[in-house]
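S.,

Sequence below, as promised.
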Amino acid sequence: MKSKNKILLATALIMASFSASALKDDTNQPINIVSDNQSLDMENNVVTFTDNVVITQGSILIKANKVVITRPPEGSEKKETVEAFGNPVTFHQKLDNGKPADGKADKVHYDLSKEFLTLTGNAELKQLDSKINGNVITYDVKKQQLKASSTANSRVRTVLIPNQLNDNKKKK
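The prediction came back faster than expected:
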């Protein structure tokens, strides 16, 4: 179960790292997962949390309808994957600079082997009034590269409020 907790922690931290670092103390806090239902498939190394899933750790708050954590077979070079589903999946975290980071999407997928996060369906990342919206937002953790794309019927939308992003004195 410790590795599953690390997966959830990593996912939560990655989600909030798009614009600043997470509260350092969050990583030392216990991970709490509350859901109406939980199931464990030991043969396939899958744990599933369903219905009103709420994950907290320090200032991190994730809400989803369903969270599925899959571990690779023993001896595999691969690492766990985490998928969260919702209408939408939402997450919130307070950053070291005191500002909140928020995000949402219909589906969130995190591959720990590739350290790659994908937000799909009505995806949004937000810090105060600055935000990026698109159909798909990806974040390569190693390269610290964020990409956003949309469908043929819509476009990626970005709103930047420079004084909010740069002003460390202003905290909400």
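The longest strand covers residues 81-94.

Coffee later?
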